[in-house]
Amino acid sequence: MVDSRGHVLVKRCLRGDRRALAALIDEYQRPLYNAAYRILGNSEDAADATQAAFLKAFEHLDSYDPKYKFFSWIYRIAINESINQAKRNRGHQQVDESAADNSPGPYRETEAGEFAHQVQEALMALPDHYRTVLVLRHFSDRSYRQISEILQISEKTVKSRLYSARQLMKDQLLASGVH
Amino acid sequence: MLEERILNLINANIDSELDAAEKEELEAALAGSAEARTMQAELRKLAHLLDNAPELDPPPGLTWQVVSRLSPGPAKPSFSLATLFSSFQPAPAGLAFTAGLLLAVGFYELGPERGMDGDTSRMVGTMVTSEPGERVPLKNDLLVSGDGFSGKISVRDQEGVYVMNFDLESEERTEIEVGLDGTGLLFGGFAQPAGDADPVFDSVAISGGTLRVVNQGWQQFAVFLRKDRGAQAVDAKQITVVVSSDRDQS
């Protein structure tokens, strides 16, 4: 499928049109930020990863192949940025456990918000590679083939990771009282 | 305990990734196993939970933060109708020119016999990307900003030729007037990026020591200045740049 609006904006960006640049960010920041948030679990890191993804994409815009959808290309960059950030966070946690984020987060003001928070907590308890496939499948609505392209793993691996991730997620939610 | 094959089929079914034969196989398994039906119901519930988790709004200002990190002097929300610069001033620290995307390298220099009042189409060229790492001495930099108008004008000394690079964006039709009286410089050429879909050449006029460019939107071009052989010295600080817009006139 052709992402014609994305292609037009990219062409304008390559000509140095800063409005097109802003339009591209406006267009794609929401799905990118949401995916980053699901992988990273906090707003600040998600915003950083989203920014880093856009900056990286614009730096390498001339290497974008218009045969593919622009969204898929930038989405893949954002997911990789988020995974890398998650790895860095894990490294920091090992050094300083006291730096854990106990802030209320974006959800917790209502009962529904508390429930959404528990879902996110359960998601965060999963290993990165399981969390990532769940995010891509459920929050970003990617197919097995698209997930395999984004993560550069086989579809078979996608399938088996999703299967294990769901089992773990189900157990996590049961343990935190969500039925 | 469910067979792994059935569990895989249930997962793939939830993801709508089964082909017809696999679907048939799963239906048969579900019909014969309460455990399989329970597992499918539980996994469907989980999938529904995840699919319906609320979306979050990105933090406000994210677009601006990214754009401002990519380009100095991003467009600002206000617009002043006319800006007069009597001389070039250094850009504020931290906003200094970083690396020009395009620097003027190739151009046609006007022969002195042509004078300055002729057809400008004879004196246009193409801007080409500078070599990576190439350093061109920076003479001065001017950041221009107002409501709906922003950009940068920089002056470089390139092998004895002064090059003024204009990188501007305006919402309204804008007139840029460059005056060289008393500078010891003459116009030597005009160039814009190769393949630019919105050429500004058509809107260039030169009269005496003044060059006018009238355009709208993003404008990137370069003006080459050469030393007036009759002048005692060159004083680039005497160059004047006046920017005015249609909004200014209304």
**If you compute it from the alpha carbons, what radius of gyration of chain B comes out, rounded to the nearest whole angstrom?**
31 Å
What's the CATH H-level superfamily name of the largest domain in chain A?
RNA polymerase sigma factor, region 2, helix turn helix motif
**Cα shape of chain B:** rod-shaped
Helix content of chain A: over 70%
Distinct helical segment count of chain B? 5
Task: Indicate the structural class of chain B.
Answer: alpha+beta
CATH architectural group of the largest domain in chain A: Orthogonal Bundle
Task: Provide mean pLDDT of chain B, rounded.
Answer: 66
Share in helix of chain B: 10-25%
Folded structure, characterized:
The complex is a heterodimer of chains A (179) and B (250). Chain A has 179 residues and is an all-alpha fold. Chain A has two domains: 1-103, Orthogonal Bundle (Rna Polymerase Sigma Factor, Chain: A), CATH 1.10.1740.10; 109-179, Orthogonal Bundle (Arc Repressor Mutant, subunit A), CATH 1.10.10.10. Chain A is built from eight helices and no strands. Chain A has helices at 4-14, 18-40, 43-59, 70-95, 111-124, 128-139, 144-151, 155-175. The longest helix of chain A has 26 residues, at 70-95. Chain B has two domains: 4-51, no CATH class; 75-249, Immunoglobulin-like (Sandwich), CATH 2.60.40. Chain B is an alpha+beta fold. In chain B, strands 1, 2, 3, 4, 5, 6, 7, 8 and 9 form a nine-stranded mixed β-sheet that branches. In chain B, a hairpin with a 2-residue loop joins strand 4 (149-158) and strand 5 (161-179). The chains are: A mainly alpha (179), B alpha+beta (250). The A-B interface holds A 15-19, 21-22, 25-26, 29-30, 33-34, 37, 43, 47, 50-51, 54-55, 58, 106-107, 112, 116, 119-120, 134, 137-139, 143-144, 159-160, 162-163, 166, 169-170, 173, 178 and B 7-8, 11-12, 15, 17, 42-43, 46-47, 49-51, 53-59, 62-67, 69-71, 74-75, 101-102, 167, 169, 193, 196-197, 218, 220.
